[in-house]
Design goal:
The protein has 147 residues and is an alpha/beta fold. The chain has helices spanning 25-28, 33-43, 57-66, 85-92, 132-146, and strands at 8-13, 48-53, 72-76, 98-102, 124-127. The protein contains 5 helices and 5 strands. The longest helix is centred in the last third of the chain and has 15 residues, at 132-146. It is globular and about 40 Å long. The structure holds 1,3,4-trihydroxy-5-OXO-cyclohexanecarboxylic acid.
Length: 147
């Protein structure tokens, strides 16, 4: 059951995630971002999702600030995860339940993917559950709202 009517959850997808579906399906799965948005809508019909993607880091900073009054924020920063301190600082300034989501298991891949500069600024990290990581992260932020 969907526990949170009227909740707003921002789902922010970063660099290169607009090519999901075509990009390395063995690693990231075959779903597009639109498919993931539909999956969330089906799983949580009463939630207002603000679903976004950008390849521009400054635009992502703006998206993070826009989530300041939301009930939750999910972010898959893509490769920015590993070096974008500006995203860390923007996330740190937003006091809502926040989850970093990765489709792939970043810990089982190249060594440079094992480090996230964003993780210290979020509440939780999900990696390797493909699209279900977005579902699990949504469930988590909604539970925080219920208290
Ligand atoms: C990713 C993992 C990152 O290392 C990579 O650069 C991405 C996608 C993931 O969802 O698994 O673009 O964030």
């Amino acid at each position: 059951m969907d526990p949170s009517p009227n909740a707003t959850v921002h789902v922010l997808n970063g660099v290169n995630l607009g090519t999901l579906g075509k990009r390395r399906p063995a690693v990231y799965g075959t779903l597009t971002l639109d498919d993931i948005e539909s999956l969330l809508g089906g799983e949580f019909p009463a939630v207002n999702f603000q679903f976004r993607q950008t390849d521009h880091e400054g635009e992502m900073v703006g998206f993070i600030r826009e989530a300041a009054n939301a009930d939750g924020l999910l972010i898959n920063p893509g490769a920015w995860t590993h070096y974008a301190y500006a995203l860390h600082d923007a996330l740190e300034a937003v006091a809502v339940p926040k989850v970093e989501v990765h489709l792939s298991n970043v810990h089982a891949r190249e060594s440079w993917r094992r480090h996230s500069v964003v993780s210290p600024a979020v509440d939780a990290v999900v990696a390797g559950m493909r699209e279900w990581g977005y579902v699990a992260a949504t469930r988590y932020v909604l539970e925080q709202r219920r208290g």
